[in-house]
Amino acid sequence: MSLPVPLLINGQSVTTPTTFPVISPYTNTPIWESSSASPDDALHAVEAANAAFPSWSTTKPTIRRDILLKTADLLESRLATNASYMRDEMGADVGASAGFVVPLSIRMLRDIAGRITSICGSVPVVEAEGQSAIIYKEAMGVILGIVPWNAPYVFGIRSAACALAAGNTTILKSSELTPRCYWAIGQAFQDAGLPDGCLNVIHCAPGDAPAVVNAMIEHEAVRKVNFTGSTAVGRKIARACGANLKPCLMELGGKNSSIVCADADLGVAVQGVLAGAFLNVSYLIEEILGGKRAN
Which first-to-last residue range defines the signal peptide (predicted)? Predict the structure, then answer.
């Protein structure tokens, strides 16, 4: 693909003067260029999301539901293409991309859409006679989602769709390793009729990420940060959120221990541990186990 992966800001594809290469893990060579957002680009995305929030937050739940369901239908119709982006950018095989991650993200999106109409408040019983109370739920505002390279469609849908379902607007800051995967998510929402500015997708070169992310966290319109990634980066995100009194939700990476029972089949256990640890670089597993890679 000759054209750089664009940003999505306020419903528009934005190609920036500065780009960075996206490297194939199969060949260790560039497969395409990606637009690289500056802090100003990131702030434009925040401002677009903030401008779209008043209207989107008052949109009827059934309208939000229908847009998410249409997005799921579009992602399903583009499954093969989107899975190929995942294989190209982060090295997954056909089973992991077309057979697992992309279909799972579509199922997740439909599940989230189905829960939208159940978001409601409550009427608790209060202590004093002649008094009552109502708990009313309302959207927070602009949510910043910082998402990783592995299982990009799952993490992109989880971050974007949960925010949108509750009436928030959002920005996805993609991993520099998988920008086209996250662009594909944003494009599907756009094609499904999501109003401009409700979902913005930005990418940037690794060296620019601290300035870009901090600019968004510090913007007063950003009300919450959702981060999935390494513990080291998570500490920096949490520090910035704390300094700006922003709530943050974190899923931090790492490897847990594996417990192998005494009566386990060690051959099966070893393959299971390898698959769990290296699912997203499954071409390496196939080489280790003597199999054949399917692109």
Answer: none
